[in-house]
Design brief:
The protein is of the alpha/beta class. It has two domains: 160 residues, D-Maltodextrin-Binding Protein, domain 2 (3-Layer(aba) Sandwich); 117 residues, D-Maltodextrin-Binding Protein, domain 2 (3-Layer(aba) Sandwich). Helix content is 45%, strand content 19%. Strands 1, 2, 3, 4, 5, 6, 7, 8, 9 and 10 form a ten-stranded mixed sheet that branches. Strand 5, helix 6 and strand 6 form a beta-alpha-beta unit. Helix 2 crosses helix 9 and helix 4 packs across helix 11. The N and C termini lie far apart (84 Å).
């Protein structure tokens, strides 16, 4: 074997040895994972993300950081998620994520192209509550008062395009009443003003509103599932009080930038579902008045598209606009 042949063999051996090194990539995640919450601190979404995130961090091998980016009906936080390129940033979303596709005329991102679904986490019923000063005890009395005093009552929401906004507009349309919409940057500040009497009414997430209702700081006029909520079976549904088909909920899921690697999506979804399967996590979620809803990225994607279609129809029929 001459010198040239020996050199070729050495080079070939070196190439073969280099292949595993080239193929070996560090397993995801390689840095802390961030989840953007598009609401202020203290809301239902954040509590769900933190609960599940604590469990995810135990097996993920990296810390999970929750970052609040509220504003513009969740658009600011969702845009930050869509624009992230670090491969470790996710965003938590709710109903408004699908509403804004129709409601906001110039979204700074494309809901379906710039983001991809990871999985659902949980959902909860809403409740229509009022300040004690409102001169109505039942929904029937409330509607009668609103009809006799058009534009006098104001209802708060978590922001334009949120469930609370849509529920208020649906009630206006179905009951034939005139209410003034006052959007906030999240449920927590809106609830504070409702308790303080700065606004009269609000549709909110049942788990956070129920303690205030039980303490007589708020009145309850009805919940928004078609059947009475297990957390508050004594509160009638709006549907059973003369508005059949009236239904809203607040659901919470996780999305990621479109460019995030598939490996990260699959791992994050698996960790979410593992956490939701733990008895202590499920029990905590249920005790808080929510329903755990594990899913796959594909099922969540289908759900998002169906929600976009549903809300687009409601926006058009009710003539809902940004206030």
């Amino acid at each position: 074997m001459n010198r040239r042949e020996i050199l070729h063999l050495v080079a070939a051996a070196g190439s073969l040895l280099a292949v595993p090194a080239l193929r070996a990539q560090p397993a995801w995640p390689t840095r802390p994972v961030r989840v953007i919450v598009p609401f202020p601190p203290g809301g239902t979404m954040e509590s769900v993300v933190r609960l599940i995130g604590q469990e995810i961090a135990k097996t993920l091998g990296q810390p999970l950081i929750v970052e609040n980016k509220p504003g513009a009906g969740t658009v600011i936080g969702v845009e930050a998620t869509a624009r992230s390129t670090d491969g470790h940033t996710f965003g938590s979303v709710a109903n408004s994520f699908t509403v804004n596709q129709t409601l906001v005329k110039k979204l700074p991102y494309d809901t379906l192209r710039d983001l991809q679904s990871v999985g659902l986490m949980a959902k909860t019923a809403n409740v229509l509550a009022g300040h004690p000063s409102v001169p109505a005890t039942t929904l029937k009395e409330l509607v009668a008062y609103a009809k006799n005093n058009p534009g006098k009552l104001a209802y708060a929401s978590f922001g334009n395009g949120t469930t609370a906004h849509f529920a208020g507009e649906m009630l206006k349309m179905m009951a034939g009443i005139d209410l003034v919409h006052v959007p906030y940057k999240g449920q927590a500040p809106a609830l504070t003003d409702l308790i303080g009497g700065q606004v009269n009414l609000m549709f909110g997430n049942l788990p956070e509103f129920l303690p205030q209702i039980r303490a007589a700081k708020l009145k309850a006029y009805g919940t928004t599932y078609l059947e009475r909520a297990a957390l508050a079976p004594d509160i009638p549904t709006i549907a059973e009080q003369g508005y059949p088909g009236f239904y809203t909920d607040s659901w919470y899921g996780i999305v990621a930038p479109a460019g995030m690697p598939k490996e990260a999506i699959v791992r994050m979804n698996a960790e979410m579902n593992r956490a939701l399967a733990l008895a202590e996590v499920r029990d905590t979620i249920v005790k808080r008045g929510l329903d755990p809803i594990p899913s796959t990225p594909e099922r969540f994607g289908e759900f998002i598209r169906s929600e976009i279609t549903k809300y687009a129809k409601i926006v058009k029929e009710a003539g809902i606009k940004i206030d």
